[in-house]
Amino acid sequence: MKIRLDPEDEYLHPLEEATNFNESMYFNVYDPAEKIGGFLRLGNRANEGYAEMTTCIYLPDGRVGFMFGRPEISNNDAFDAGGMKFDVVTPFEALRTTYTGKVVLLDEPLQMANPRKAFTDNPWVDARVELDYRGIAPMFGGEPVNDDGSPLTEDLSGGFARGHYEQHVGARGVIQVGDEEWAVDGYGLRDHSWGPRFWQAPWWYRWLTMNFDDHSGFMISIVTSRDGKQRIGGIALEDGEYRHIDRAEIETDWVGDDFYHQEIRVKAGAGDREYEITGSVLNLIPLRNRRTSPEGEKLVTRISEGMTEWHWNGHTGYGLSEYLDQIVDDKPVGLTP
Q1: Domains plus CATH for the chain?
Q2: Which of 15, 67, 140, 159 could form a cystine bridge with 201, CB 3.0-4.6 A?
Q3: Alpha-carbon distance 233 to 248, whole Å?
Q4: Would you say residue 191 has pLDDT above 80?
């Protein structure tokens, strides 16, 4: 088996028969000078008749502007729904993201644990995001294929996107929320996924994205299935080149009755390289996905999105710490010391 990735993969893939076929792009960014950042995600689920559209903006004063919607779509021809649009300018090098629409403005972002109440009790304002992304690193990932390049007959993704790649990026542009506007010049990470996907496929995962400058950053991932099996991976960006993370441990300090992650300690390795990284969550918003499994089991998935300050080897950087957990007995299943 090998991994295939071509420039054509930057564009939309043919719509497959699986009812839960998903094709998505995701972009995050943080500007430490302006202390503003966030992420945009658009996931096409054309066979289910809608796209998942998420806008999340972490404001300098601790508020969060947030919007989620399921705009109707009937095909997988473009990333363009619900006021959000992604355009590939030059594959692997330059992409443009825009969002024009409303966000709910949260003084207390944790209120999103109850989305209906959060959307009802907080004000809505106009928002605009226009960001041009540039690649600052090679591509990482792609689609598994046979050694001869033919498609695999078995889906090894575990129901969580067969094709997937990521890239550290820089971003420049404008973010506007209500009457406030910021010129953005920061760093982030983007990804692109395609294939069948259920958010309930992993039992829990930790996905950490980190940027320190034009030449250094990390992505570290631990995905755990219900039977306890784990996939550990990621990338270390040093001097503009990627090294593959082949081992990682994550320790977390949790806060509050709902157990949100706050302090993070990471030990990771890539070949003969060892890394120790610490992170402190600056702001966090919990997102929720509910679905009944094919077996009739009702599952509640929480995805806690923490804008995080990272420290590594004397350097300070920023990025997202995304903690996905199935919620059982009102607790995240990945709760650990």
Answers
A1: 1-197 (2.40.370.10), 200-337 (2.40.370.10)
A2: 159
A3: 8
A4: yes
